[in-house]
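Quick one - first record:
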Amino acid sequence: MEKQIVIEKFDAIERKIEGLIDTNQQLTHENIRLREEIDGLRHQITVLQENEQRQEEVKTIIRSKIDTIMAKLDDFAGNETVVDAG
């Protein structure tokens, strides 16, 4: 009888250990998946930052062009006033 109880206890311990091993493997796979997801998100952040930088550069160019055009218009308007007065 004692032998049977000892065997049952060892069987229970073995089942618990197998469950822990399975859980560990699942968590290891989940950890790998999450690391890959993090890497993908980091890549997306980098791409978005590069796109944002390019957009800022384009905005700067556009502002410069608008300022140049506005200055030319101001010069044109100023010259036309002088011509009308003369």
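second record:
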Amino acid sequence: MQKMTGEEYRQFMLAGTRTGKLATVRADGRPHVVPVWFVMDGDVIVFTTWHTTVKAANIRRDPRVTLCVDDETPPYAFVMVEGTAAFADITLDELAQWAMRIGGRYMGAEQAEAFGRRNGVEGELLVRLTPTKITAIKGMSD
């Protein structure tokens, strides 16, 4: 088992269609973990959510979050990103562009525009997760 370099971390995060598992904290202290599709903007992780979701409410109240991305095949690897989530103040056109990038990653280029149109609407929020601590480990079974 060894730490990933910065470049290995970025490649790992953007490889294929791995989902992130986003952890937030409910008002009563219980954890809430959900899968999210994401892309990166430099070191910032970007995803969308509907304004009435549990994760949106949790982020509004407490922006501290953790995102875990893993590789479930040998030799196994994972990245855990602790950080602060914030809702981006952007136009609907900008939101649609981000949604297209996310949709293109997970659904393929041919579906990206439709995904962007579907999610680039009033009520959808763009979330930017700024890392404060990154744990990136590869070769778990080595």
